[in-house]
Amino acid sequence: MSFFESDLVQEEMKEIESLQNEIYTQMFNFASMNKEDKLYHIDLLDQLLKKQKIMYTRLSLSDDPAAKEMKENILKSAIALGFEPGTDLGYIFGNMSVLVDNMRKSLSEQD
Fold first, then answer.
1. Is 59 within 8 Å of 6 (Cβ atoms)?
2. Structure confidence at residue 111 (pLDDT)
3. Could you tell me the end-to-end alpha-carbon distance of the chain, in angstroms, rounded to an integer?
4. d(CA 83, CA 90)
5. What b-and-e string marks burial along 21-35, b requiring 16 or more CB atoms within 10 Å of the CB?
6. Rounded to whole angstroms, how far apart are CA atoms 9 and 7?
7. What is the pTM of this model?
8. 106 contact partners, CB below 8 Å, separation of at least 6
């Protein structure tokens, strides 16, 4: 069975896509959201990052050619976004998680 034929992988990819769509449709409204909606949006970002990190780890551990190709495409996309070649995406995911945590903390302190 190939990497992408796995029921678990297919389900995770559907969840990632669903989270991405929900986040994208609301991100331009973030500034005008109330605190509760902002916290919900931040929680979605956190969920998405965790799922993406797990998926990237799975891709990295797989010997499946399609998984290796997807990992390479992700690395190429990171370079296109301005990251240096060879940048550890685990490090990037960690920094993004810290940013999301800081957003949550900053919003929680506003009262």
1. no
2. 64
3. 53
4. 13
5. eebeeeeeeeeeeee
6. 6
7. 0.89
8. none
Matching residue, tokens 């797989």: 62
C-alpha 47/C-alpha 108 separation (Å) is 18
CB-count burial class (<10 Å; 0-12, 13-18, 19+) for 59 = buried
The amino acid that residue 3 corresponds to is: F
Instruction: Return the structure tokens found at 49.
Output: 């990052």
In sequence order, which ranges of the chain are alpha helices (DSSP H)?
Answer: 7-27, 35-61, 65-80, 89-109
Q: Encode pLDDT of 6-55 as tens digits.
A: 999 999 999 999 999 999 999 999 999 999 999 999 999 999 999 999 99
